[in-house]
Design brief:
This protein is α+β, with helices and mostly antiparallel strands. The chain is 30% helix and 25% strand. Strands 6-5-4-3-2-1-7 form a 7-stranded mixed β-sheet, sandwiched between helices. Strands 14-13-12-15-16 form a 5-stranded antiparallel β-sheet. The protein has a 4-stranded antiparallel β-sheet with strand order 8-11-9-10. It binds adenosine-5'-diphosphate (ADP) and magnesium ion. The site of magnesium ion has 2 residues, from loops.
Amino acid sequence: MKIKVGVFFGGQSVEHEVSIISGIQAYYAFDTEKYEPIPIYISKKNEMYVGSEVGKIESYRNIDELLKNSQRVILVNEGNQVKLIRYPFKKFGSNELGTIDVAFPVVHGTNVEDGTLQGYLRTLCIPYAGCDVTASALGMDKYAMKTVLKDNGIPVLDCRLADIKRYHGAPLKVIEEIEAGFSYPVIVKPVNLGSSVGIKIAWDREGLEAALDYAFEFAEKVLVERAITSLKEVNCSVLGDYEEAEASECEEPVNSDEILSYEDKYMSGGKGGKTAGAKSGGSKGGMSGLKRKLPAEIAPETREKIRSLAVRTFQALNCSGVSRIDFMIDMESGEIFVNEINTIPGSLSFYLWEATGMPYAELLDRMVKLALKRERERGEITYSFDTNLLAGVTLGQGAKGSKA
Ligand SMILES: Nc1ncnc2c1ncn2[C@@H]1O[C@H](COP(=O)(O)OP(=O)(O)O)[C@@H](O)[C@H]1O
Ligand SMILES: [Mg+2]
């Protein structure tokens, strides 16, 4: 029997469209001898849809039309199986439209990639590919991530966190605090976004104010750090889990501006930059459509250092499945910093694994196996604890449970 894999993409995130590209690429790349992939589109309202149109990239040119022609479903665990149930229910006939054995999130950004979808899947008791709830949440919060990496001796740029309430209450104070810690230029980023959304470099106080105002349009917490002016960016993917993990080939994204923009990342592949690849799994579109040098133009020692730091980062954050770790090299000092982790990287970094000699179908196969492994290991842990605590309990009004 083939394993039924629910491939989830979309969701209430600014990276919704990119996720559609990544998700559909993945859907077509599964080895269909072994797997039966089922595309599940999560709308911007976080509603789930299935149907024959959902797996076609062309359908997303008109999403309203797509939703009309597709079936909304809810997921229900019944009899140890997760069922796709038609919603709203039909009065007569079966509402069960299928089942899935494994969930495969290919979502990017807040409200999905940040542990939200993972938590939902966990409550459904279904194995799912990729990072668990905690690793996903840590990976999405640039500040929390840096804190854990620092604690593990992994080089990251020092940063300062600023929150919207304090900033709006006393902007000058916040600016002075930043200026006391850093000299210009600095870079301001929302802590929990991706795709360069909300990011600006500031060269002076006026610029800092503008950058803070801008970043706070997108998030309640932003971080500020030194801007590296002579920057080389290198990305490396890691596949595995806490026990065993390996690094891919390194890539060097090529940017047209001082910050690698949303346009650079997703729209620079010409026509292909906006559309997912063909049935083969695609060579254009999403992160795979970005202009890049692959392999990165770096010395062999630098490459090895980056690959080893990538694995350490992945394991320090307790990641699983495939992640992409993005590095910054300060070309003036030669220092290497981990910039961020993407726990569900664009295009799942399949192009980095292809360059390492692993076809996309094998990458997906390994990810499903890791999901099943984690589920087996979870099965060995006790999650419910039988007690007779409730046997004699009556609660008077206003009574509080006592927690030892
Ligand atoms: N400290 C920095 N100095 C210089 N450029 C930076 C710095 N941090 C980020 N950038 C630039 O901004 C881009 C986006 O920042 P990043 O932290 O990767 O956020 P995102 O999650 O949006 O990708 C990077 O790819 C890089 O080009
Ligand atoms: Mg980035």
